[in-house]
Fold each of these.
Amino acid sequence: MRVTMIGSGYVGLVSGACFADFGHAVTCVDTDSAKIEALNSGAIPIFEPGLDSLVAKNMREGRLSFTTELAGAVRTADAVFIAVGTPARRGDGHADLSYVYQAARDIVAELDGFTVVATKSTVPVGTGDEVERIMREARPEADFAVVSNPEFLREGAAISDFKRPDRIVIGTGDDRAKRVMEDVYRPLYLNAPPLLFTSRRTSELIKYAANAYLATKITFINEIADLCEAVGANVQEVARGIGLDNRIGSKFLHAGPGYGGSCFPKDTLALMKTAQDLAAPLRIVETVVSVNDNRKRAMARKVIAACGGAVRGKRIAVLGLAFKPNTDDMREAPSIAIVTALLDAGASVVAHDPESMAAARAVLPGIAYADDAYSCLDGADALVIVTEWDAFRALDLDRVKAGLREPVVIDLRNIYRSDDMRRRGFRYSNVGNA
């Protein structure tokens, strides 16, 4: 089949490369000419494990191409996917749908024959209705169907998620569109992925509800971690104890500095605002958003407390800046609030991250950056682990202790064992373990 992706950001690029790897002919369209030029020269604008080789392979074999020219790509397509950004709108927190609606206008102008237009961007309930209205108003005679097909990709594991999905949600009431979408995902049938066909509005809400629920699990275990510290319990054992219940499950029960990234912060906020506007407030989601915002700054207070109650004039080493490992994404990363609070308290900060330092420099210009973990901590008064990169899980602890002025380690991801760290002479603090 011929597939066109409108947008070559994270979702568009990963989805386009995976569709091409299925054997479809895929064209990724973007208005950013510099990005398209870079992609055509083999440069990948984001870090996602395995994506560079997947893109190169499918470009080499002629199944994947990149262009700024939308017209030809849309006219020949069986399915056009809208995969543009929907950031939180400044001022009110609602999703900014201007890119989605502009894509709809651009697409409908070039349609030739029956085409499925599938929204893969994360959008509030009712967006598909507005996309269809815009398109039919522009060209009443055009033959198309607007479908909701949300993505469920985890940064750092996106290719695996796309090729071995838990579910594929498709919102449409059009039989022709259903057949096209079945053909698009037919290469996955050997793995028997569950295709869930539902209404368009239900599909849109599934995406938001899923992200809100996962964000709630993270926030719940973070609050339980605070209680564990107060009563002398171990949050990791609590998480294991409740996670073994298959009604709950163990995923997203890892206490830490709060959630960040490109999805959870903006999606929980957008869902909360939509619900408030419809007089159906989601009090749990409202609390999750508030608690998570406060938690990031609270982690800085935890660092300050571990340093004796003050950090003015002290040098703090920070390992990990991206919101999670295996990505260079700094959007809403907990490190931003933590580092900013430490700077406000008078500390100097030096940081290292395996992939995100280029992006970090734009949002954290007032700190120093180190080329590796050991040069980062050398001469520091304390070490703070913010992101659980594999490279930080087995540090040479003798070397760590020798490099630090004081043997203070604040592990916000619980990647080391308290008893082992204290036995080695560290003043060790983690999350949810008194």
Amino acid sequence: MNICMVGAGYVGLVSAACFSDFGWTVTCVDKDPERLAEMKAGRSPIYEPGLEALMERNIKAGRLLFTDELGPAVADADVVFLAVGTPMRRGDGYADLSYVFTAVEEAAPHLQGFTVVTTKSTVPVGTSREIERRLKAKRPDAEVAVCSNPEFLREGSAIQDFTHPDRVLVGTDDARAREVMGRLYKPLALRGSSVMFVERESAELAKYAANAFLALKISFINEIADLCENLGADVQEVASAIGKDRRIGDKFLHPGPGYGGSCFPKDVSALIRTAREAKSPVSIVEQVDRVNHERKLAMAIRVVEAAGGSVRNKTIAVLGLTFKPNTDDMRDAPSLVIVPMLQERGATVRACDPQGRRQAEPLLPGITWCENALEAAEGADVLVVITEWNEFRALDLEAVKVRMKGKTIVDLRNVFDADAAREFGFTYTGIGRKNTSASNTASRDETGETMLHVAQAAK
């Protein structure tokens, strides 16, 4: 089976590498010459554990190809995947489908024989039918079926998610397309993975609904963490207790500074807009979106209050900037709100991130970049954990104490043992733990409006 993957970004590249490892021939089409050169050499332009090894193996076997020529790749394909970006449109929060429709327009003249055109990008409900309309208008003679096949990949564990999925979702009402997509995913079906065939609208909405629900879980446990602090409970104990309930599950019940990344913020926003247009507002999801933006503001305030009410002329060591560990993705990362807010209040920021510097540096000017956590802690008044990279969990707190000027830790991911930190003489502030000293409520001080402006700009 021949596959054309239009777009070699995160979703496209991971999907292409995994499909080629099934034995299919996959041609990735991308217009960026620098990215193409990297990928042809077996180097991934994104950080994802295990991806380069997968690419190298299948490039060597001749199953994974890269090109900037769309025509031949589409002409040879049994399945054409649309894996281009659908960023959040500024002003209304809706998904920008311009890249999708441009790809459709460019691919249409080259379709030969029966071809399945499939959206792999996250797209609003009705997009597949609009693609079908455009294809028929441009190529009424083409034998084509349009499907929706959303991805459910977690950055940092995307290969495992692709090869051992909870489910594969295919939206189609065409019998031939169902046969082709069933054959495409047969290697997974043979392993016992569920391949679900549904209506196209159901597949498109399911992706948004899944991400909105996970975002809801994150916001829920963050608010429970705040409640725990005020009542003397421990959020980790509460999360563990409710997570044992199989109806709830223990995933996404880890409190922190709010969600970010390439999916949750834009998908939540797009679902809200879709629901409003359909005159079926999703008020719970709207509240999740608001709570998450306020959460990032509150975390910056927490750092300020832990520092004694002011960070002016103080040095803040920041550990982790990416929106989550095991990725270099900075999209909508909490650090993009927290760090500028601290800088606006007069703080000097020393930061380190195992993989995020290349992406973060242009987004966070004025930071002193450090190679590791101990270097970042040098001369710092306050140490703040924003991203829970594993290497921070085993940090030698005694060595940290020697290097720091102050003795305050603000652990926004609960990576450290609170009692151990206090035994070393630190003033420790965690999330949802007893005896945390910093308030989680954004105070309305003289800089409140400025801080809110920074947060909105980051959004």
Amino acid sequence: MQQKYSITVLSLFLSVQIFAQFSEKINGAWQRFVSDPQMKYAMASILIVDASSGSTIFSKNEHVGLAPASTLKVVTAATALEMFGPSYRFVTQVGYKGTIQNGVLNGNIILEASGDPTLGSWRYASTKNFAQLGELAGMLEKAGIRKMEGQWIVNESGYSSQATPGGWPFDDMGNYYGAGAAGFNWYENQYDLILNPGTAEGKPVKIARTEPVPDAVDLRNELKTGPAGSGDRAIIYPDLWPNGTVRGTVPAGVKEFTISGSIAEPADYFFRTARNASLFGVKSEPFNGLQGQRSFSFESSGSKPLGQWTSPGLDSIVYFFLQKSVNLYGEALAKHIGKDGKEPAGTEKGVKRIREFWKARGIDDASLHMYDGSGLSPSNRVTARALVQVMQYARTRDWFGAFYEGLPTINGLKMKSGSITGVRAYTGYISSGGKTYSFAFIVNNFDGSSSSIMQKMFTVLNTLK
């Protein structure tokens, strides 16, 4: 008995010694980090916990609310997985009103918006290459509709007409990563702008075309040619021109240069795509000369079904949401979380319900000030403690596999990154020496380059490896 007691005491002593050495190591790394000139006027917060016990390993400013950038996506993703389940699918119903006589539909074709952010997306086998246009043509053929006298109507009556959250920076909204989530989305509400730079710096830049849909937008072009190798310094602004103005520079020395922008009217984008369906190998007479409208008050009762579009599973959506940091997905999921069938689904109601969800699970809603579902808004304020609580909760759920699979591997660690102007953040898991740690690390208002502060943050996190 005395021998067993001695071994237990010795093991406890060694554990305390190892923990003390570990704490000293990470504290030293932290002190060097916050003493760096880049951090002179910055604020940083960090929390690391033992994932098994939940006990704190290291913390600094864990209760200070900071802008989390895209690390906020783990909150939206975990909420959606818990509320809907990883196998959940969006369903967009297709129907018609009117009569079919001799192959002619005298009436309207109706697409019931479901908030699905994947319609027409290039990321999934079931949606890429506009496969859903072929499905739609098949529905019409099966119903005997060869021509139509009427309109195509996208019914978005269950959704707010405001696609982008309030507070998003003006500089972001015209670009692909600033695409807002409508009730009906198409090709992730973005397009590619193919540019022909000039032969020398300062020369005008020509807009060659848009892809995949021709003439997707009408932009005022104020682009100039920059130095060779200068990269993408172009921004699309959503100002008073029909679809915005493109300003800045793209590099000389290349025949074509591509940037990507956001579409403000995705329903109209779908109509344009359908009218050009033959370019994508889909032929359907009702697509020719297609006339359509987007409605927020259409009464679709009494319509007859033609078929439906079904999205990939939520686990697949979450995978790309986290891996590729698709802001559109975050906003679509936030709106869907807030959808109650009573009032139009919008961002404000969605984030309110997300905060209520986590409050019921022990996270103080004052530590989770959200203004969107993606983290693009600089107004978001979240604590490191709140992020770690979400990461810890996720580990206990049966959908954790889908959540974990979606987290990118960065610097050898499984974690979600976040970056907007003046913000760099990470949250995730570190497995080392038979132990797993959950962590969140946020820095706001640093000086200098984002890539430099990123490497210095990695140095702190590497002490856990």
